[in-house]
Design brief:
Layout: H1 6-27, H2 42-58, H3 64-71, H4 74-84, H5 91-108, H6 117-142, H7 148-169, H8 179-203, H9 209-215, H10 219-231, H11 239-264
Helix pairs in contact: 1-2, 1-7, 1-8, 2-6, 2-7, 3-6, 3-10, 4-6, 4-9, 5-11, 9-11
Amino acid sequence: ACAAPSLAIAMYRCLLACALTFGWMLLTSRRVRLPDGARAALGPGVALAAHFGTWIPSLRLTTVALSTAMISTQPVWTALLARIAGVRPARAVWWGIAVSVAGVLLLTGFGGSVTGSSWIGMGLALVAAFFAAVYVAFGERLRKSTDLGSYTTVVYGVAGLCLLLVALIGGVALAGYTPRDWLLIVAITLVAQIGGHSAMNAVVHRTSATVVSTAILFEAPGAAILAAIFLGQSVGLTLVLGLAVMLIGLVVVVRGTASRMPESGV
């Protein structure tokens, strides 16, 4: 809905969120502290920049429903990363992920005719899902020793600066937008970045990254509904059924992860 360049949207939402979070820290007389050092924030910051740098452009190439369907593969990547790190997810976790992803594909009507640039958009969203999993995995580890305000301030700042560098190299227009576009950028910062990513970062250290990533699957029906209302992109009658299937899958993942907590130490 925003006419500003995709990379500019990604950059401004990160930098504005960084400024807002830092302002909140100042108002509450808190200092930005990173026990593991500033370099520890480079990993999640770069991963977040790569996530936005691939996902937001994908929305210009395919429908919101198909893009978020690809993003919904994030819990699969998260579980694979956990397995590489030595954590063995329970078999129920894999079944739950499969059911949840099937629910997303069902509610988005995935499997219909997809042609042209839509494949490129879906491919970018798939890459974005991988980087989102890396971002959440970093958060699961670093948030155990870093407070929410410090973590989000630095990580959002690193992501914003990375995107700014890419935008400058690519000659992306960073000004000259309409007032409506600026309002939309502010809205995505407040709702999606502060209300969404910050909420996710607030809980990721209390549960596993796999559970958090699976919960993010509920972004798909919400995005599909908003796209139908504001962009005129159709939503099929399978939305309710797909949402129910997703919920069942999420419950299975949560139960499966809880059963492994004493063994894995997650």
